[in-house]
UniProtKB/TrEMBL annotation:
PROSITE patterns linked to this entry: PROTEIN_KINASE_DOM, PROTEIN_KINASE_ST
Domain Protein kinase: from-to ranges: 1-251
Pfam families named among the record's database cross-references: PK_Tyr_Ser-Thr (PF07714)
GO MF entries: ATP binding; protein kinase activity
Lineage summary: Eukaryota, Viridiplantae, Streptophyta, Embryophyta, Tracheophyta
Record's compositionally biased regions (Polar residues): 254-285
Biased composition (Low complexity): 292-305
Protein name from the UniProt record: Protein kinase domain-containing protein
InterPro entries: Kinase-like_dom_sf, Plant_Ser_Thr_Prot_Kinase, Prot_kinase_dom, Ser-Thr/Tyr_kinase_cat_dom, Ser/Thr_kinase_AS
Residue intervals passing through the bilayer: none
Length: 305
């Protein structure tokens, strides 16, 4: 069996806390769209995590690494669907879990481009009872974290939905959530792309040129509208992951779908029209800045067989 081993830097309490959170959650949660934790090791300062090896690495490598074979439109939708299934599973579990670190580098791919979420170090139990959020220290990754979470520390499953919207934008545009090599507004993908997402005629301007125009225009527009809903500054307006998933599955459904799946598609469309985007001011200025306590990257991972 081929495995991937992550060796954590001996960096004190936060590192240990995350290691423990990862072991606790991944030890209990099992789903085809979550990476399998095969084992772990704690010996003094040394902490290891052993996972199933994901042969195609992370989505980040495929989208952004120089020289990577471009992903087709169909593969991009497949990857989005797999990741949405993983998040939906966490949010709709009997004891809901907020993932909190949804980003392209944490979406791992198998040989058939099935996605699995990895890195549960920041996962957090969702609110219980009538509560809509849990209050917590702001952690996560710059460019992906929801604005209300960054501003107030209020974390809800809708924070994950926002991050999902950012990854959808990365899939559409082939650009990173934050790119310091760009100038001005183009450094922040959400700020830059938002004005184009709801405009059928302008959408092509933000589409990944590596797709060379090989994508269905209507499908791209539906996907962009979905991203816009996920990125709504107001958390409660964002769709639930089950609704996001239904909309994405509709995009990948074959044209001559059977009657049953047409009925399912109708349900999905209805679900989405209930969560139409309202117009909101952009969260400019509230997005995480350099001084925010958002996490930098964690320790690198080694693979072995
Ligand atoms: N199970 C795995 N199988 C194969 N490759 C993996 C596996 N887990 C991680 N990787 C690869 O190792 C890289 C580094 O992972 P790691 O989680 O340490 O950092 P990251 O996700 O890039 O950033 P962060 O520390 O912020 O999560 C991933 O981006 C991915 O390419
Ligand atoms: Mg990671």
């Amino acid at each position: 069996m081929v495995v991937a081993v992550k060796k954590l830097k001996p960096e004190g309490f936060q590192g240990h806390k995350e290691w423990l959170t990862e072991v606790t959650y991944l030890g209990q949660l099992h789903h085809p769209n979550l990476v399998k934790l095969i084992g772990y090791c704690l010996d003094g300062e040394n902490r290891l995590l052993v996972y199933e090896f994901m042969p195609k690495g992370s989505l980040e490598n495929h989208l952004f690494r120089r020289g990577a074979q471009p992903l087709s439109w169909e593969i991009r939708i497949k990857v989005a669907i797999g990741a949405a299934k993983g998040l939906r599973f966490l949010h709709d579990a009997e004891s809901p879990v907020i993932y909190r670190d949804f980003k392209a580098s944490n979406i791992l791919l198998d040989l058939e481009f099935n996605s699995k979420l990895s890195d549960f170090g920041l996962a957090k139990a969702g609110p219980t009872g009538d509560r809509t959020h849990v209050s917590t220290q702001v952690m996560g990754t710059q460019g992906y974290a929801a604005p209300e979470y960054v501003a107030t520390g209020r974390l809800s499953s809708k924070s994950d939905v926002y991050s999902f919207g950012v990854v959808l934008l990365e899939l559409l545009s082939g650009r990173r959530a934050v790119d310091k090599s760009k100038i001005g507004i183009e450094q922040n993908l959400v700020e830059w792309a938002k004005p184009y997402l709801g405009d059928k005629r302008k959408l092509f301007r933000i589409m990944d040129t590596k797709l060379e125009g090989q994508y269905p225009k209507k499908g791209a527009y539906t996907c962009a509208s979905l991203a816009l809903q996920c990125l709504s500054p107001e958390a409660k307006v964002r769709p639930r992951m089950s609704e996001v998933l239904a909309a994405l599955e509709q995009l990948s459904a074959p044209k001559n779908a059977s009657k049953t799946s047409q009925a399912e598609q109708k349900t999905a469309t209805n679900a989405l029209s209930r969560t139409q985007v309202r117009s909101h001011p952009s969260p400019s200025g509230r997005t995480p800045g350099g001084a925010s306590p958002l996490l930098p990257r964690r320790s690198p991972l080694h693979s072995s067989s």
